[in-house]
Amino acid sequence: MSEQKFSIKVASFEDVELATKWAEYEGWNPGLHDAKLYYQVDTSGFYMGYLGDEPIASISVVKYDEGFGFLGFYIVKPEYRGQGYGYQLWQHALMHLDGCNVGLDGVVDQQGNYKKSGFKLAHRNIRFVRKGGVIESIEQADAENIKPLSSLEFNDIKKYCAAFFPADRQAFLKGWITQSDSVALGYVENGELKGIGAIRQCASGYKIGPLFADSADIASALYLQLICHVSENDDIFLDVPQVNDDAVKLAEQFAMTQCFETARMYTQTEPDIQLQRTFGITSFEIG
User: Fold this and answer.
1) What is the pTM of this model?
2) Tens of pLDDT along 139-174?
3) In this structure, is the dihedral angle defined by the CA atoms of residues 68, 201, 77 and 42, taken in order, positive or negative?
4) Percent of the chain whose predicted confidence (pLDDT) is above 90
5) How is the chain classified by DSSP, letter by letter?
6) What does pLDDT average to over the chain?
7) CA 252 to CA 89: how far, in whole Å?
8) Per-residue pLDDT reduced to its tens digit, 214-262
9) CB of 39 within 8 A of CB of 86?
């Protein structure tokens, strides 16, 4: 370990932007506006570790309420790994979520270390990818039921999404579905919202998330409309919970292939959320 002093500070927005850049280098492929949207959720929930004046490690421990938080952006610069800096940062940051049920999406090879810190495996998440949108899908998708989310009442959107996350995150949701470089759609049948989907531009290609729907057919219709907004040269990514067989089948149906996976883990009981209606996870970094 270096003789320089290791210190930990609450991260500034500039630090979060740097951590997002590190995530890009790691191949996690964050969205263009993720840093701003994540930081606004909990401005005290991001930490940066410094060796002297150099930032070398990051972590996010976003606290949604007194009962639930989510850990992400746990990154140590490659040249400083294996020297204990990351673990110091981990221990310090988790104090911010003391008493909370904490969730994370961790890389599989770190699962053992997370278990040692009290995390228990809930299920696997799989990232799928395909090349390019499908222009001819416009006619196939159930377009008459699909509306821009901006044309719907936000309270209806908030109410619908409440079943898919264990804490209220109204401000985050509002920012997420109105962000630049994205498209957000809802599926409405007989005046009732039965599905939502969003696609955003990322460091590489586009990522769908969330994709929540009351049935596989509704999820498919939303998926087809979302990818119509992507050129044939761009990659499209979709993160699905493996425990939802219909979500895996949807990805495979549209010629998507597995490219990455994570372990969803929690420190306490797995939350009662609608995984069987989750066809696309909002974000590995923030839940």
Assistant:
1) 0.94
2) 555 678 999 999 999 999 999 999 999 999 999 999
3) negative
4) 89
5) --SSPEEEEEPPHHHHHHHHHHHHHTT---BTTHHHHHHHH-TTSEEEEEETTEEEEEEEEEE-SSSEEEEEEEEE-GGGTTSSHHHHHHHHHHGGGTTSEEEEEEEGGGHHHHHHTT-EEEEEEEEEEEES--TTHHHHS-GGGEEEGGGS-HHHHHHHHGGGSSS--HHHHHHHTT-SSEEEEEEEETTEEEEEEEEEEBSSSEEEEEEEESSHHHHHHHHHHHHTTS-TTSEEEEEEETT-HHHHHHHHHTT-EEEEEEEEEESSSPP---GGGEEE-S-TTT-
6) 94
7) 39
8) 999 999 999 999 999 999 899 999 999 999 999 999 999 999 999 999 9
9) no
Percentage of the chain beyond pLDDT 70 is 96
Tokens of 199: 């696609």
For the record, the structure tokens of 5 come out as 């002093």
